[in-house]
Amino acid sequence: MTVQTVHSPAPERPDARRRRNRRRALTAVLALALAAAGTACGSDEPSRYSRTCGVVVDGSGSAAASRTGFDAEAKLKATLQTFLADKKCRKTSFAPITKVSKASKCQVSPLDLDPNTSKTADRERTRTTMRAVALSNALKLLRCAQKEEPGSDVLGGLSRIALSKPSGADASFDVLVVSDFDQGDTDFRLGRQDLSTAASRRTVIDGFLKSHGRPELSGADIYPVGYGMKYGTDTSRYERFDSFWTELLEGRVKAHVHTTYRR
């Protein structure tokens, strides 16, 4: 009878077991890294925009392209698309400045400047196209406002765009205001007010807000274009004008006013 001898494998040395475990761990890490890299390379979609913006367009007589006007059309063309791109605006609303801005029939619909598209669409090209549409709509609003009865209710225009301000303490709202800010409506003409002292300006602002209402723009960022242009080189009048609007917009309304696009 033949007897077969069975040989048991030698016990694995501890250091060999550790090397084998390290190789397995390294292989797993490399696999995860490659998977992550593949995901990153295949997902080059730019992040979506989320900011809410507003555009206010002054259609009063001073908005004309004349020696005494501030040329609202030229300023819209020069700044609007840059503003919308800089601020990464998505939902964008529009409001006119007319003799009675709150009641003006002039309006254009809000736009989504970063709309949902197919996965193969060029998102940056879509955004650029939509910003061009926004400019076209703003120009339509301007032309409508210029056909209405002459007047410039700046505060009413700000109150109207304030209706588009998103709710929530942390919600952003960037507003481009193409206007010389020369308030002149049936009940209030800025050029006839006593703005010579801080006390007189406070009195004027008190009455102005009482009769015209306070725009709900607390925390909003306002970017004027054409601001104070009628004063030209008249420094003292401009300083009184600027002090009036600074106190009203920043002191009373609690908005933040910027000079980024002012020209």
UniProtKB/TrEMBL annotation:
Signal peptide positions on this chain: 1-42
Domain of life: Bacteria
Identification of the protein by name: Lipoprotein
Organism name: Streptomyces endocoffeicus
Region of interest (Disordered), residue spans: 1-20
Keywords attached to this entry: Signal
